[in-house]
């Protein structure tokens, strides 16, 4: 077993507690789907921890157990600070948290982004964190507005062509 995961002072194989994952300084706004994902992740981690603890005599389980415990501390902290933002009853009057937004870039390419919480963000799927530069550029814009998205390679102009509730 790697010495990094043992208590050197007494030679035991009890895992050292891993440092906690960093917590964002931004408000922890979550969509209903994002909250459900966090809750499901907590349940999965609790089950993983129970399974790994049942194999406590296996030194190979010590590091995965420490990782699962660290991850559960993170998820529990995120659940404890979650601020649920439910979608509006009617249409979105402007781009807001939870909205799906269609934009057209300078080259005529249409893309859909949904503004979500940090733990739900997945840019490859068009799910962008509310604190991201793109989301900050889009927030509060209205249909037909052209917004400037600052990027390292230069500013991109995006025209808002649709604002709607996220498809479930």
Automatic annotation (TrEMBL):
One of its GO terms (molecular function) is DNA binding. One of its GO terms (biological process) is regulation of DNA-templated transcription elongation. Residues 1-10 have a biased composition (Basic and acidic residues). The keyword Protein biosynthesis applies. Residues 1-32 are annotated as: Disordered. Residues 94-164 form the Transcription elongation factor GreA/GreB C-terminal domain. PANTHER family: TRANSCRIPTION ELONGATION FACTOR GREA, TRANSCRIPTION ELONGATION FACTOR GREB. This is Transcription elongation factor.
């Amino acid at each position: 077993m790697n010495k990094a995961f043992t208590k050197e002072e007494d030679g035991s194989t009890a895992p050292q507690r891993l440092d906690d994952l960093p917590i964002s300084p931004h408000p922890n706004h979550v969509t209903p789907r994002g909250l459900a994902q966090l809750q499901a992740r907590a349940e999965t981690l609790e089950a993983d921890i129970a399974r790994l603890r049942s194999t406590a005599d296996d030194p190979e389980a010590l590091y995965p157990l420490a990782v699962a415990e660290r991850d559960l501390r993170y998820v529990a902290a995120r659940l404890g600070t979650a601020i649920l933002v439910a979608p509006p009853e009617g249409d979105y009057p402007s781009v807001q948290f939870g909205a799906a937004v269609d934009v057209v870039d300078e080259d005529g390419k249409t893309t859909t982004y949904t503004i979500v919480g940090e733990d739900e963000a997945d840019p490859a799927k068009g799910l962008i964190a509310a604190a991201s530069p793109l989301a900050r550029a889009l927030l509060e814009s209205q249909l037909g507005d052209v917004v400037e998205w600052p990027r390292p390679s230069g500013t991109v102009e995006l025209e808002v062509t649709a604002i709607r509730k996220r498809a479930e």
